């Protein structure tokens, strides 16, 4: 089995390969990838993502990485709407579960005008590679399979890589290696574990 360092070192060669950027899988389907990892490596993975973005920026003028941290998008959107402080106060009074549901409704998650999806889609351009991060931080407000399904319907011109703190076996997403998400079978492993 490959170490986390071997897997992280495999990302740049993979994403700079022309066939990866052409964004077609074996059956000519859109290329969605998951880089799953043990949750204990979260900070290492975050640091390595920043390293990848800088290296690609410095060495490849034709490739652009757009990172979208789901948690940061939620905070930014809620702040712009003037709801962030209100939600903090509401959580003190009514609890986290109530606030999570209120946030989902105010962001219109999974609806046609899903504000997080719109945020991402409106910032993606040709030659981009989309990195989705902050999956663990955004839970339980957002679920990874929901994000992937919604993106799959909206972004089909550029590769999308979700960095997932948990396990993905090609069918099942298990956040933090404990919380089973719904099945998702349209993504490839970015870097194999073996």
TrEMBL record:
This is DUF1788 domain-containing protein. InterPro entries: BrxB. Pfam families: BrxB. It comes from Clostridium ljungdahlii (strain ATCC 55383 / DSM 13528 / PETC). It comes from the Bacteria.
